[in-house]
Design goal:
The chain has 161 residues and is mostly helical. The chain has a two-stranded antiparallel ribbon. Helix 3 runs antiparallel to helix 4 and helix 4 crosses helix 6.
């Protein structure tokens, strides 16, 4: 497998890890015939089955927007989850934008397809992209440039005085 194929496979395997949740459908037994069908196993409880995966960034943002509409008195403002949802509502699009800018890494605005794709990854994946992106910033040379310009500025100020 090539490196890109391996990475894609790892991401897909990670995203496929899920917890199965069964939501029971209403189950009513009316009359003697239905009770008999339940007893012999011909009528059973039915379920809607979902695979609960890590919440995607876009869905976290959607949930945060809805929870912001709830009255404050129904939940504890000091709760960490409430703070996370508040921050999600206000800053998810900024984080997605920064990750897209870093990935595209050219003078153009991020492509819509990339922005949309990043909204539907989970938080760990977005964090990994942002972490790797920030590690690619050449901060040492940036800071050295500032020190150099500050030093030149202080020297020229001394010469003019």
């Amino acid at each position: 497998m090539h490196d890109n194929e391996s990475t894609k496979h790892d991401v897909e395997a990670y995203l496929d890890a899920a917890i199965e949740i069964k939501v029971p459908l209403p189950f009513h037994v009316k009359g003697i015939l239905q009770k008999l069908l339940v007893r012999i196993g011909l009528k059973r409880q039915r379920f809607l089955t979902y695979k609960l995966r890590k919440i995607k960034v876009g869905n976290r943002e959607r949930m945060a927007i809805r929870t912001a509409k709830l009255p404050k008195q129904i939940y504890n403002d000091s709760s960490i989850i409430n703070r996370v949802l508040e921050l999600s509502r206000d800053h998810t699009s900024d984080l997605v934008y920064c990750a897209a800018v870093a990935l595209q890494n050219d003078e153009n605005e991020p492509e819509e397809i990339l922005l949309n794709a990043l909204k539907w990854v989970d938080d760990e994946f977005l964090f990994d992209v942002l972490t790797k992106s920030v590690s690619q910033i050449d901060y040492k040379n940036f800071l050295n440039s500032i020190v150099l310009l500050t030093g030149i500025q202080s020297l020229t100020m001394k010469e003019t005085q």
